[in-house]
Amino acid sequence: MPTTVLVAGFRGSMGQKATAMIKRDPELELAAVYSPHLETTDPAAYDLPATTQVFNQLSAMDTPAQVWVDFSTPAGAFENAQFALEHGMTPIIGTSGLSDDQVAQLTKLAKEQHQAGLLVPNFGLSAVLLMQFAKQAAQYFPDAEIIEMHHADKKDSPSGTAVNTAKMIAAGRKQAPETVENPVETIPGARGANYEDVPIHAVRLPGYVAHEQVLFGGPGEALTIRQDSFDRESFMHGLNIAIKQVNRLKGFAVGLENVL
Known about the structure:
Blueprint: E1 3-8, H1 13-24, E2 28-34, E3 53-55, E4 67-70, H2 74-86, E5 90-93, H3 100-113, E6 117-119, H4 125-137, E7 144-150, H5 160-172, E8 193-195, E9 198-204, E10 210-218, E11 221-229, H6 236-245, E12 252-254
Helix pairs in contact: 2-3, 4-5
């Protein structure tokens, strides 16, 4: 039997790619879609199979979906994930912007519900490898900065990928980075956001999709690790793996590497 999937935020760029991928895969079934801003719940209006349920209210939802894929908004993703866990669905959250406290709450709820769940900062396999390589490099180069570049429509910054990369750099360090005493920013924010002593610089420009550079500096040398996602289709391989493997998890996890 195919795995049944609900996609929240199905009309966005990532949501459209996700629904197309699910419809192509005979091992998956697009059981339902959800967006709170729909005027009609007729699947034909969205070029969806007649068997796909369409919802615009959580309170009206009654679906056989086993996995909840979320590409909605930072404001809605947390509530959606709570609903999924409380109603027997396994959430896979591709929306960035959740706080550490919200992740902790979802982790606690998943444990209480004996459910699995996954927050994925980036579904691109190249991005997963970048984060792993950055963690290894931080053992030898504790001084690092991140430049993340995304399309102009991305609302939140820094990206979830950049924040997760900073966490992994901090976890990989064996010594503290050098600090500049009494730094002066002639324009506030010039040194970027600081997360775990890793400056993060966010770029939002048309023409970009999702890109990240991690710059490491040491005495007389430097190392740069970079990944580029030129098309959102590149994220679908990782999403497909996550949907099929997520229930092997015990509890709630962060990062695609947990199901690879």
